[in-house]
């Protein structure tokens, strides 16, 4: 799914246009963001693509939604 990642005053945020949903990113698997799983406030877990650590934001990427845990 297409996901726009951007930096806000309160941290990183993910916007999913197809769902018209914007949620803060509350957990990062990898410190540099890219190539790992991020968790959104609503509980969604997204696998982000491998990109260079200093990729400029905002950016739209193709991410994969992982199944819910539990």
UniProtKB/TrEMBL annotation:
GO biological process terms held by the UniProt record: nitrogen fixation
Top-rank lineage group of the source organism: Bacteria
Xref: InterPro entries: NifT, NifT/FixU_barrel-like_dom_sf
A UniProt-annotated Pfam family: NifT
NCBIfam families on file: nifT_nitrog
Name assigned to this protein: Putative nitrogen fixation protein FixT
Organism (species): Mesorhizobium australicum (strain HAMBI 3006 / LMG 24608 / WSM2073)
The organism's taxonomic lineage, starting at the top: Bacteria, Pseudomonadati, Pseudomonadota, Alphaproteobacteria, Hyphomicrobiales
């Amino acid at each position: 799914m297409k996901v726009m990642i951007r930096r806000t005053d309160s941290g990183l945020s993910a916007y999913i246009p197809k769902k018209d949903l914007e949620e803060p990113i509350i957990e990062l698997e990898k410190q540099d963001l890219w190539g790992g799983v991020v968790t959104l406030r609503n509980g969604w877990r997204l696998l982000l693509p491998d990109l260079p650590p200093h990729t400029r934001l905002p950016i739209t990427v193709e991410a994969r939604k992982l199944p819910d845990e539990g």
